[in-house]
Amino acid sequence: MIGVLASGSGTNLQALLDADLPVAAVASNVGSARALERARAAGVPTAVFALENYATREERDDAMGEWLAGHDVELVVCAGYMHLLTAGFLARFPAINVHPSLLPAFPGMNAVQEALAAGATETGVTVHFVDDGVDTGPIIFQETVSVLRGDTRETLHARLQEIEHRLLPEAARLYVAGALRSAAE
Ligand code: GAR
After folding, report:
1. Which of 41, 60, 144, 167 could cysteine-pair with 54, CB 3.0–4.6 Å?
2. 3-class SS at 147?
3. What average pLDDT values come out for the chain (185 residues) when binned by 10 residues?
């Protein structure tokens, strides 16, 4: 079973749901995340693990890990999840992340804006296994996108998201089918 972590609008979560992947649980660090509404609409259990409700990040991730394990989660997919995961959490679950740049270029939360600001002529999408760095870990897929004259953060991100919505479900599908394993397994 797949557990999805999402902090925002949840279009990547929607792509996973639309691909009929076995999403058993959706957790967020943000109670108002639209991703939670998408999960509820699909009948998938949700929970919020806001950092401010725990003494430490480790305690928060331990609680989130317990909840996910209680829903038989074996693979975690980060679909716009904007917090780092602790080493303890990552020792418990393999995790896949999607990121809107050609990593290692432009890690972090503002990858699209930073690619534009740097004058990059190409950027892209990376799907990778998660380690305890910021948008690091073994790469599963990368696909390049040209930056067009006149692109804004919105227009470029929209083209990148079309690719994300194809590559992230494909990586999850391969993992569930047993065709993909992280180096740690
Ligand atoms: C996606 O573009 C994803 O690549 C990015 O957040 C967006 C979430 O969109 N993730 C990161 O920047 C991770 N560092 P969504 O909520 O519509 O799926």
Report:
1. 60
2. coil
3. 98 98 98 98 98 97 98 98 95 97 96 98 98 90 97 98 98 96 75
Q: What's the 111 CA to ligand 1 centre distance in angstroms?
A: 10
Q: Which residues of 144-174 are buried (b: 16+ CB within 10 A; e: fewer)?
A: ebebeeebeeeebbebbbebbbebbbbbbee
Ligand 1 pocket member 127 (CB < 6 A): no
- Examine the residue annotation and report whether 99 is marked as an active-site residue of this protein: yes
Is 53:32 a contact under the CB 8 Å cutoff?
A: no
> Whose Cα sits closest to atom 4 in ligand 1?
99
Q: Measure 104 CA to ligand 1 centroid, in angstroms.
A: 16
Per domain, the residue ranges of the chain are: 2-176
Ligand 1 in contact with 45 (CB < 6 A)?
A: no
Q: Give the ligand 1 atom nearest the CA of 100.
A: 4
2-176: CATH topology: Rossmann fold (3.40.50)
Which two tokens mark 34?
Answer: 């639209």
pTM: 0.96
